[in-house]
Amino acid sequence: MNPEIKRGSYAKEKGEVILREHEFDGIQEFDQKLPNWWLFTFYGGIVWFVGYWVLYYYTGIYQTDQKGIEQQLAAIQEKKDQELAATLATLDDQTLVAKWAADPSIVAAGATTYGTNCAACHAADLSATLEAGGNKVPLPGRPLNDGHWEYGGKPMEIFKLINEGTPAASAGYNGARMQAWGQVLSPKQVAELTAYLISMNPKDFGN
Fold first, then answer.
1. pLDDT tens string 165-202
2. pLDDT range class, residue 57, cuts 50, 70, 90
3. For the chain, which has fewer Cβ within 10 Å, the N-terminal or C-terminal residue?
4. Domains present along the chain, CATH in parentheses
5. Is 29 helix (H, G, I), strand (E, B) or coil?
């Protein structure tokens, strides 16, 4: 063993080399004194972490990610509610039938929304069936062209159903409940979709 290498607890002087008493398979560990800059950095990191943790979780000075997301969602919902209220203020049964459903551009926009979001369950022709091998295969949704409106056949009732989804007290259609499309579509899109359904069922809304 190199005579300069000593055995002890740890090095107390710069450049002093110390080996631990412990030995395993002929291997010993160095036990040198760490540089002061490293120790200051290490202990400073611990102090910083504890201080930041207390400030972040207990003082309210910093906003947690969860609270930030909740505030953003609340702001989005508030904006949606305001937009819905503004749209509802301009709508009634007569307006949807005589104005919205009579406007080709509005009906076309509603048809696009229907094809993107509704046709998978109600079919492109509103029959809620799919042609397969010469047979009619039923889809999950209700037919929208049979004159039967389960939750109310007035235009504003249909608007509400699309916007809020199947009523909570209802079991749905064959156990399937329609989602609240107002969480996905804007109030204007819901109104356009309602106008499209009205235009496709003139006998139901002729008056």
1. 999 888 888 778 899 999 999 999 999 999 999 999 99
2. confident
3. C
4. 6-59 (no CATH), 69-200 (1.10.760.10)
5. strand
DSSP letters for 121-160: HH-TTSSSEEEETTEEEEPSSPPSSSS--TT--SHHHHHH
Which pTM value belongs to this model?
A: 0.68
How many Å from the N-terminal Cα to the C-terminal Cα in the chain? 107
Task: Tell me how many degrees the CA angle 16-22-25 measures, rounded to the nearest 5.
Answer: 115
CA–CA separation, 127 vs 110, rounded Å? 17
Helix (H) or strand (E) holding 194: helix 187-200
Residue 33: DSSP 8-state: P
What is residue 133's predicted lDDT score, i.e. its pLDDT? 77
> Are 114 and 193 in contact, with CB atoms under 8 Å apart?
yes
DSSP class of residue 185 equals S
pLDDT tens digits, 12-46: 777 778 887 777 888 888 877 788 899 999 999 99
